[in-house]
Amino acid sequence: MASPANPGPGKVDFGKALGFVFEDPDWLKKMLLGGLCALLSVMFIGTFLIGGYFLRLVRRAARGEARPLPEWEDWGGLLVEGLLAFGVYLAHMLAVMLPLFVAGGCLLGLAAAGAGGGEDRHGAEVFGAMAGLGIVALYGVLIVLSMALGLYMPAVLARLAILRRFGVVMEVRENFGFIKRNLGEYLLSLAVFLVASIISQFGVILLCIGIFPLSFWAYCVLAYPLGQIAGRDPVLGPAARTAG
User: Using alpha carbons only, how large is the chain's radius of gyration in Å?
Assistant: First the structure.
């Protein structure tokens, strides 16, 4: 059965995506707490909390709430949702990267064996050179797959935010279907996130401290249009607009 076209009323307000945060009367407190969580990401707990906050922001934006920034409360719930998001991300990372690392390890072993030499020194050098080229090729594949994963994961997280099930990991067709139905707006949301990420780097000017709340702001900038896209999606929309 063909996927329905996206009939969503209205368009995603990408201009507002960069500034919606500042419409919340408690935006400073929320950004500072988010920045603190970003700082605590080195101990992983901050990563989990930001992941949970990201999913909740997607849901609230999908429902069309005027002030979609969630409160920093229900820390246990945020942590659980963040662990779910991290598990989904880790599953994708392992599925994509693990085979490459195994192949790379095999090539490194072959290169070491070639470098060890033997009586046939010329053959060993050729063997080692071929293994080295294979490692370089794998590195190129790793870069390409990492970029592809960066383009794909926001769709997975958007569906995870609405459906709240780990099974989105296996729903590759549905994840790509979400991207396909909303391709233009989806790519624009990633472009806006890229702009916000570049802006966040100016936090270094503030003695490196400002980079943490600005980095958190950049993730909010991504979550907001993703939520709006989910709310307008003809397949995900009904569930998105009623997601609690």
Answer: 22
Cα–Cα nearest to 127, from 106, 112, 137: 112
Q: Judging by beta carbons within 10 Å of its beta carbon (0-12, 13-18, 19+), is residue 50 exposed, middle or buried?
A: buried
> What b/e readout covers 214-227, taking b as 16+ CB neighbours within 10 angstroms?
bbbbbbbbbbbbbb
pLDDT per position as a tens digit, 46-79:
999 999 999 999 999 999 998 999 999 999 999 9
Total-model pTM: 0.85
DSSP state of 71: P
Q: Which domain holds residue 175?
A: 14-242
The answer to whether residue 2 sits within a structural domain is no
Helical spans, DSSP H, in 117-182: 121-163, 172-181
Number of domains making up the chain:
1
Task: Tell me if 88 is assigned to some domain.
Answer: yes
pLDDT at site 124: 60
Query: Measured over all CA atoms, what is the biggest interatomic distance in the chain, rounded to whole angstroms?
Result: 76
209 CB neighbour count, 10 Å cutoff: 12
Give the pLDDT of residue 134.
74
CA quadruple 244, 185, 159, 10: dihedral positive or negative?
positive
Q: If residue 194 lies in a helix (H) or strand (E), which one and from where to where? A: helix 183-200
Distance CA 154, CA 164 (A): 14
User: How many residues does this entry show for the chain?
Assistant: 244
- Separation CA 24–CA 175 (nearest Å): 31
Mean pLDDT (the chain, rounded): 85
Whether 22 is in a domain gets the answer: yes
Question: In which band, very low, low, confident or very high, does the pLDDT at 112 lie, cut at 50, 70 and 90?
Answer: low
